[in-house]
Design brief:
Elements: H1 3-26, H2 29-36, H3 40-44, H4 50-73, H5 79-92, H6 104-112, H7 117-143, H8 153-174, H9 178-195
Helix pairs in contact: 1-2, 1-4, 1-6, 4-5, 4-7, 5-7, 5-9, 6-7, 7-8, 8-9
């Protein structure tokens, strides 16, 4: 990797954390400069604007989470095991894994809802991909007899995401992992009693 590419990647890595923790509006270029150890000109040599950096940093953070999903799912064939693996990825987010600050989609969706349409669109596309992991898992699980046939894949995806994203928010807000632990325990029990045939 060339030196310029290494510098660009380092900026993305560190900016992703700053934006995820402070938000687009809350993160100043001074924050980015402090995190990267670069002057403003060094950052703008690689990114034209703060918007460009924010969008790429968001995509970088989401890609880190997607890699976690891929790794968690790769050896799982049973649909319930796959759903538990997805829950496991969510469970680590309040602790800053794989990116500090919690879920990048949750953080960005709340902040950019009415203020930054481009970031909102990136968040929506990223959530579409995450929902697709769940929808595919549930649909295949029904086809293979691993999930009850009356389960509606879209409903289960909404329930899983809303429950776990809400648990991330509560865990971060109160700095208390009990909220995520309760949500995970409830959802895993729900899988065994209401989803598994």
């Amino acid at each position: 990797m060339k030196k310029g590419d290494e510098t660009r990647l380092m900026i993305l890595q560190r900016a992703a954390e700053v934006f995820n923790r402070k938000g687009y509006s809350g993160a100043s270029m001074s924050d980015i400069m402090e995190a990267t150890g670069l002057e403003k000109g060094g950052i703008y040599r690689h990114f034209d604007t703060k918007d460009d950096l924010a969008l790429e940093a968001f995509d970088y953070a989401v890609n880190l989470v997607e890699l976690e999903f891929i790794n968690a799912l790769k050896d799982k064939r049973d649909a319930i095991d796959r759903l538990r693996a997805i829950v496991g990825v969510y469970r680590a987010m309040p602790d800053g894994l794989p990116v500090a600050g919690g879920c990048p989609i949750l953080n960005t969706a709340i902040e950019a809802d009415d203020t930054h349409p481009l970031l909102r669109d990136h968040a929506r596309r990223a959530m579409d991909k995450w929902r697709e992991y769940i929808l595919r898992t549930v649909t295949k699980g029904i086809e293979r007899g691993q999930i009850r046939p009356e389960i509606v894949p879209d409903d289960l995806a909404t329930f899983l995401i809303a429950t776990l994203e809400g648990a991330i928010m509560l865990s971060k807000l109160y700095d208390d992992p009990r909220h995520m632990n309760r949500a995970v325990e409830y959802f895993q029990s729900y899988l065994d009693t209401n989803v598994r045939p």
